[in-house]
Amino acid sequence: xxxxxxxYCTKHSNDVSNNTMELWDWTCDVFEDADKMxxxxxxxxxxxxxxxxxxxxxxxxxxxxxxSAVAWYESTVSTQAEIITLxxxxxxxxxxxxxxxxxxxxxxxxxxxxxxxDSIEKLTGxxxxxFVDANKEGYEGYVKQILDxxxxxxxxxxxxxxxxxxxxxxxxxxxxxxxxxxxxYWTENGKALRRFNTFCKNDPRIDSVLLPLYDxxxxxxxxxxxxxxxxxxxTSGFIKMMD
Length: 243
What we know:
Blueprint: H1 2-11, H2 18-30, H3 40-53, E1 57-61, H4 67-74, E2 82-87, H5 90-102, E3 109-113, H6 116-122, E4 127-132, H7 139-148, E5 152-160, H8 183-202, E6 206-211, E7 217-222, E8 227-228, E9 231-232
Parallel strand pairs: 1-2, 1-4, 2-3, 4-5
Antiparallel strand pairs: 5-7, 6-7, 8-9
């Protein structure tokens, strides 16, 4: 039923571009774990949010083959947003660079290689959209680091993907059809993401909502009380409600 619903929603939502769809098909053909990539429907969702948000800077933690970076790039033409994407895996770095060269994205997309924690520590300024889709045991640390460094703009939001971990976050019995080959991997991810969900619920600086979309999506923003008239702890801007 879930696949039927997704197919229906995809057919009745905005289409992604030919380039984005071509990259999605190529990734599915080349990579065995292509199910880690965002779906066309999720790509359309990301583009919708970016067009609404009108970001000047986008940060993504986890690049894979560059699919989400293409979505951010194409949906921020009006603001010419700077897009910074972080990746550790040499195989995915090569695939992402292929994507950025093929679709001529290098004018606004910067790929930073290495451990995300180290890369985040070196970042400065603020980002209006932050997309977290990397190693799941790192989610809590990445988001905490982003908040501590105030990398999220007053009007911005963080979007964390795969928070359900194929259902393993909710219960190890939630997905009996999960292949045995990947079950241990997603089971461990589920444990880490349960801790992450507790962190999001309890951190007094943020509002968060965990949505039953795709493989679970968490949206995070600063609490209104976190912002001053001059912005987050004195930076510029006002909190933009996500309600």
